[in-house]
Write a structure and sequence with these properties.
The structure is a single chain. The protein starts with 16 loop residues before the first helix and ends in an 11-residue tail after the last helix. The strands form four sheets. The chain has a seven-stranded mixed sheet, with helices on both faces. A five-stranded mixed sheet has the order 11-10-12-16-14, sandwiched between helices. The chain has two domains: 140 residues, Fructose-1,6-Bisphosphatase, subunit A, domain 1 (Fructose-1,6-Bisphosphatase, Chain A, domain 1, 2-Layer Sandwich); 104 residues, D-Maltodextrin-Binding Protein, domain 2 (3-Layer(aba) Sandwich), CATH 3.40.190. α1 runs antiparallel to α2, α4 crosses α7 and α5 runs parallel beside α6. The radius of gyration is 18 Å and the shape is globular. 33% of the residues lie in helices and 25% in strands. β7 and β8 form a beta hairpin. It is an alpha+beta fold and 283 residues long.
Length: 283
């Protein structure tokens, strides 16, 4: 399913016009990439296992090529980091860089589940400034601009204003939820396959707390990060620090996301009962 993008990025006098144009291009490109992936899934795809034991499909690679060609055409000098492209240290000297996951939630994509997405963000000096996340099966196009808010199919998003841990809707690895539940009863939600969508649900207010264990990557996080921040939430490390992107290693420690009113309480509970840093956070 594709989404009409003309209304997704409204004009905003407070946003650089050039960045508004790039945001619209990004939304259109990510939507088209999602449509490509969906078409390929319906036609049948080849799959195999990478050296790190994670799955990959021919659609991951086709969407990666599509995104790289389309996004690089906007500004060839901007850097590139993608799950499905060999890393190049030249990205470290780039002021702006595209950070991309062609299909976040590949296992869900392979199984025919709806919770997978195309994720792309423009990062400037380590901070996401534009993001787009498209879930083709559900037809949800999430977009965000620094200072311009976060939207789903054009509708403004706002993270939950909850300020109590008890009864909070939480999503993440079972051991992470076990840790939270030692401090207060919570409502556990299905983890799903896409980490980016898990965090995006904090931006929509459908989820109060989202967690990930160690070894998530820049491409899992960057687009969802700006969505949450622009919706009034936070995504941080267990030290309470914001996530920084385009470092020599794109891997991250355990992370926690929540609305501003709840984040401190959830962070304190997670710190007190921290969970093991073991296998990557992939479903």
């Amino acid at each position: 399913m594709s989404v009409e993008t003309s209304h997704i990025i409204p004009d905003d006098a407070g946003i650089c016009p050039a960045d508004q144009r790039v945001a619209r291009q990004l939304a259109e490109i990510v939507s088209a990439a999602g449509a490509l992936a969906l078409d390929m899934s319906r036609a049948g795809i080849k799959t195999w296992t990478k050296d790190d034991s994670s799955p990959v499909t021919e659609a991951d690679l086709a969407v990666d090529r599509f995104l790289r060609d389309a996004l690089s055409a906007i500004a060839p000098e901007w850097g590139w980091l993608s799950e499905e492209t060999a890393d190049n240290e030249a990205r470290l000297s780039a002021r702006r860089i595209w950070i991309v996951d062609p299909i976040d939630g590949t296992r869900g994509f392979m199984s025919g589940a709806p919770d997978w997405a195309v994720s792309a963000a423009l990062v400037e000096n380590g901070v996401p400034i534009l993001g787009a996340l498209f879930a083709p099966v559900t037809g949800e196009l999430f977009t965000a601009m620094r200072g311009g808010g976060a939207r789903r199919n054009g509708a403004l998003l706002r993270a939950t204003q909850r300020d109590t841990l008890s009864g909070a809707a939480a999503i993440g690895p079972a051991d992470a939820l076990d840790a939270l539940e030692k401090s207060a009863p919570i409502t556990r939600l299905p983890r799903g396959h896409s980490l980016a969508l898990r965090i995006a649900r904090v931006a929509t207010g459908e989820v109060d707390i989202a967690l990930s264990r160690a070894n998530s990557h820049d491409w899992d996080l960057a687009a969802a990060d700006i969505l949450v921040r622009e919706a009034g939430g936070q995504l941080t490390t267990y030290d309470g620090l914001p996530v920084r992107y385009n470092a020599p290693s794109p891997r991250h420690a355990p992370l926690i996301s929540a609305g501003t009113g709840l984040h401190g309480l959830a962070l304190a509970a997670a710190r007190t009962h921290s969970f093991p840093q073991r296998q990557p956070d992939k479903a």
